[in-house]
Amino acid sequence: MFIDKIEGLHALEHYGIRVVRAKYVDSAEDVIAFAGRRDAEDDRPVPIELRVVGQGKQPLSGRGVTHGPLLDHEAIRRAYAELAPRVERAGGRIVAADAVGDGTDIAITGRSDEALGKCLTVRSAVHCVQRMVPLDEGGAEALARNVQGFHHHGASEQGRRMLEHLLLRVSTFFEDSGVESFDLDPVRIHENGYTVLDATLRSRASLHRKARLQREDHDRKSLDYHPSGRQ
Q: Do the bridges between strand 128-132 and strand 181-189 make them parallel or antiparallel, or are there none, so unpaired?
């Protein structure tokens, strides 16, 4: 079965994977509340996107179903009014999500093969690489170097460590959560960070959430990784 979109993002976050902040919304005012800056002196909203989420595997993003970035209350109200009829006709929900800055988009897919077992595949517009799960530090480093060589973003040593950190976390999620297969698409790679923007997860049962890992568990190289921006 397909896991609910928001539940899937929360499950990834539980395993230490950075995901976009997102929420189902039922009105324009609900969106405005989601976009509010709690500590700001004015009422300018956080830039957000609105997306129509269909049933099953339909992605959060897509032609004609995404509006944004939305920068003020009137833009939010107009976008919601345009998207709401789509939900009524086709079913599904509207999701509000933080607008994420530019970067390089990749996709990370997890599949189980009868012969090979569990495998991770990392795809971009021009390249595709695959490794078996579980990843150790050497496997994560080799995969990160392979991916990094095809993109101008993240070419630094810190960028490579960031990719290793992400891939080790995804490997642990695939091993321990009970998920059968997944698509993290897109994952946006920033200068020294990343954000999972959409996730499609499949599982025969509810996902298992193990006790949260400590930073040193299975991911020692992440001790040297410090994401940029406000923490």
A: unpaired
